[in-house]
Specification:
Helix content: 10-25%
Radius of gyration: 15 Å
Number of helices: 3
Number of domains: 1
Structural class: alpha+beta
Length: about 190
């Protein structure tokens, strides 16, 4: 099992006030931007790499609008496999110029994410499709065990109440000193 660093991304991790999939969740730190919001207009800055992430934490911070508060910068490591109809397939990750993860970052857990119709990664069923109510997630709405995350990616790739597409497993990391207080915001409309 090999994870490859693919970049950094700034997110707001507030739990929407009407999101009730798990009482244990105090922040949604998903790879998806469906609930853990990205800075508005980030893509128009053209600082991202071909995986849709940023090569340095500073590049990620540079897309946060002036005066934007509450954003955390995450680092993402991607499993070099994807899952299709329950079967693992090798995943070729293009050469990237991603800066090494700073020592101040710690692992928060593992997320399962689709990629089917978009150039970038799409939905995280733990937070987007209510799967956090069916499996044990940690306070970040992530899975603690990489083995369980891999088993869930294989399961979700077969369908059954989650988004269609190829499923991927990410390790999610964040700077240990940057832990925002939980906030509760209205749920925004999902866009695809």
């Amino acid at each position: 099992m090999s994870f490859h660093l693919v970049g950094y991304f700034p997110k707001l991790t507030a739990v929407p006030s009407n999101w009730h999939d798990s009482d244990q969740v105090t922040e949604i730190c998903s790879v998806s931007t469906c609930i853990a919001s990205a800075p508005e207009g980030w893509i128009n800055r053209w600082l991202h790499n071909e995986m849709g992430f940023f090569n340095t934490p500073q590049d990620a911070l540079n897309v946060v609008p002036q005066g934007g508060t509450g954003f955390s910068v995450f680092a993402y490591r991607l499993l070099e496999q994807r899952f299709d109809d329950g079967r693992p397939e090798p995943l070729v990750i293009p050469p990237l110029r991603v800066a090494p993860v700073p020592e101040s970052f710690v692992s928060l857990g593992f997320d399962i994410v689709t990629k089917d119709l978009s150039d970038f990664f799409e939905c995280s069923p733990l937070s987007c499709n209510g799967m956090a109510s069916e499996v044990q997630v940690n306070r970040y709405c992530l899975i603690d065990s990489p083995d369980l995350a891999i088993a869930l990616a294989a399961q979700y790739s077969r369908g059954g109440g989650v988004e269609p597409g190829y499923y991927h497993v990410f390790e999610v990391l964040r700077e240990a000193t940057r832990v925002p207080a939980p906030q509760f915001l209205p749920l925004k409309a999902q866009t695809r």
